[in-house]
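Re: the pair you flagged

First of the two:
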Amino acid sequence: MTKKILAVASGGGHWVQMLRLRPAFEGQRMVYVTVQPSYASQVPGERFYAVTDATRWSRWDLVKMICQVGWIVLKERPDVVVTTGAAPGVVALRVGKLLGAKTVWLDSIANVEHMSMSGQRVRRFADLWLTQWQHLAKEDGPGYKGGVL
């Protein structure tokens, strides 16, 4: 049975890591959300949304991005939300969870010494909460399931 998967990633490395997950999504109905409109060319034929790039230091942009991502999740009603971070992924995971979607957080490979701040904040909203570094895995999470993307 095919699932609708909402794949959410910020720009740069977060997006690159999401693209590396594409083989795992084969045969599913994909919807991609990121912060760079130009990334649409990397997922041809798939539903794609670009949202405002925001950080905790740009309050107005953050409010705008929260509204955009929230609307996308409400509109798309995904079965699963998968994110490699950061801010748009936090919003999508929280809204998706409220709507009954299964949620997956895969923390960035760049976070070698500790989980990202975003990754720590989504802990209770993620059905599957993962790190890409074995030494960061703990019994109560995050989990580690193998190799690095």
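Second of the two:
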Amino acid sequence: MTLTLGSILLASTNPDRLRTWYRKAFDVTPNQDGFLVFGGVAVLIDQRDDIAATPAEPGRVILNFHLDNARDTAARLDSLGVTWLVELEERHEGMLFATLLDPDGNYLQLIQFSAAYLARTGKGN
């Protein structure tokens, strides 16, 4: 059996506002079906009437964005006035890491893997 995580539904009571924010924040354009494609994972932001306006447990599911240049992305997010839970900082092996809130209050993380981490794990090839 082949199993692939191909998409994520990000439910919102205000999907137009949230979709617009993601487009600006990550410079991404929806595909013909309305999905925002980040590498191999597509995110559909859609209306749901059975949810609260903000998540009760925003850390339950966290979208991790792996970036080549976390500093530029953090600067763009700063210009949008985001709320940082953890500002961009250097961590183990020189990796850059940050946690922020999207307009609905969902947690997002920015991760830039260091050359040392990529070399150690063999993921840099």
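The domain at 7-121 is CATH 3.10.180.10 (2,3-Dihydroxybiphenyl 1,2-Dioxygenase; domain 1).

-B.
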